Every structure is written in structure tokens, then in C-alpha cells.
Amino acid sequence: AQKVTQAQTEISVVEKEDVTLDCVYETRDTTYYLFWYKQPPSGELVFLIRRNSFDEQNEISGRYSWNFQKSTSSFNFTITASQVVDSAVYFCALSSWMDSSYKLIFGSGTRLLVRP
Amino acid sequence: ETGVTQTPRHLVMGMTNKKSLKCEQHLGHNAMYWYKQSAKKPLELMFVYNFKEQTENNSVPSRFSPECPNSSHLFLHLHTLQPEDSALYLCASSQVRRDQETQYFGPGTRLLVL
């Protein structure tokens, strides 16, 4: 069975702190993709990153960085020097090819509150 | 930047009403999706349209009826809904490719059923 677990329901930090959001996944597929999406209060899910199962290189994009570790089935997301605008719900998702299309399985999300 | 638009953004309806949600994608994608997001529940995939053909119906009650007239437009027709159907309904689109695929989401319609 495919599953994504985001154990942190809610995290609260003070602006400029670094924060890491955890994501653990389960799959038996050898080819799969992992995603992070951001959902601000407006509701829209904003795509942040996609990583395929064959690429374990960590990625950095500005204040965002992602750590993919196949050995622990984890795909963690770190925000450096957090800002109030980072306050949102963050979703980790797993997709694999099933029935001629990719199916996205989402975690339950982590609500991040960045206080000024 | 969003290439997926949804209307209306907010909707309040009674249990006997009939309404429709509309989604339009401007990204040239060939697949569209409806998701339901309820409080305290993970995002649930409802329907998938791939090249305008419905390829997925995740045991969704018949009071929800999707329609995909072309690859850019997707509708969700609602009738005789229940209060537990109150949720955020999100539309997404993607370009189906065997080697990679990313879904892009619209802003959602917040539905309240009274």
C-alpha cells in the first residue's frame, strides 16, 4: 500500500528560525515521485518541488531545501530563516504510475505558523 | 502564478439545490482532476479525466456528477448534497507523461451545504 505520513500536525516558530518539516512515505514501487505543495490560507495548492526516486541529490532553492533519503523513506523539507509569509499548510505527496496515469497520495499536512 | 482557475470561489447551497463548479486550465494539459479537502481529512481524489475520458471514480456518491467537455474545462455538478459534503473542492490539471507528471491546482471552491 502507498502511504505518506507527516507526523507533525502543527509547528510554530519565530521569524528567522530554521524549521524542518518531516515526510515519511511507503511504497513498493521502484519508480515513483515525491512532491511538496504549499497551501496558504487562500486555499490554492502551490507546487514547490518534484523529486524522482532515482535522484537522491538534495536540492536547494533560495531559503528552501529538500533532503531525500531512500534508505529511510524520507523526504524532508527545511525552510531557512523563516518568514511570516511562509505560514501555510505544507503537504508531502507520493505518486506512482497506476492504470495509465499517476496517482497522487497526500499526507495529512503540517501547519506552519511563523510568528513575527 | 496559476494556470488553473475555479469558479465560484465560495458557494452556499441548500440540500435541495443544484449547482455546478467550474474549472478551467490554461496550461495545455490533457488530464484534469477533482479533489475534496475536508477539515481533518487528507486530500481525497474524486475523479480523473484523461484525454477527456473519465479514468477514475473513487467511489464518489452519485450526487456528484463530473463533466469534461474538452481538455481545458471540467465541471462538477452538485445535487441534493448533504451537510457533510461541505468542503474545499480543488481542481487540478497535468500533462500525462510516462516519465514524469506534476499536478497544478486551482484556488478551490469553498462549499457550505446547509
Overview of the molecule:
The complex is a heterodimer of chains A (116) and B (114). Chain A is mainly beta and 116 residues long. Chain A is built from no helices and 12 strands. In chain A, the strands form 3 sheets. In chain A, strands 2, 5, 6, 10, 11 and 12 form a 6-stranded mixed β-sheet that branches. A 4-stranded antiparallel β-sheet of chain A has the order 3-9-8-7, with no helix packed on it. Chain A is globular, with a radius of gyration of 14 Å. Chain A starts with a strand and ends with a strand. By secondary structure, chain B is mostly beta strands. Chain B contains no helices and 11 strands. In chain B, the strands form 2 sheets. In chain B, strands 2, 4, 5, 6, 9, 10 and 11 form a 7-stranded mixed β-sheet that branches. Chain B is globular. In chain B, 32% of the residues are buried. The A-B interface holds A 33, 35, 37, 42-47, 50, 52, 91, 95, 97, 99-104, 106-109 and B 2, 31, 41-43, 45, 48, 50, 55-56, 88, 90, 92, 94, 96, 98, 100-108, 110.
How far from one another are the termini of chain A? 41 Å
- In the predicted model, the low-confidence regions of chain A spanning at least 5 consecutive residues are none
Number of helices of chain B: 0
Unreliable segments of chain B (pLDDT under 50, ≥5 consecutive)? none
Number of strands of chain A: 12
H/E series of chain B, N to C? EEEEEEEEEEE
Q: What is the number of beta strands of chain B?
A: 11
For the termini of chain B, the CA-CA separation is 33 Å
Helix content of chain B: under 10%
Bin the strand percentage of chain A.
over 45%
Per DSSP, what share of the residues of chain B sits in E-state strands of 2 or more residues?
Answer: over 45%
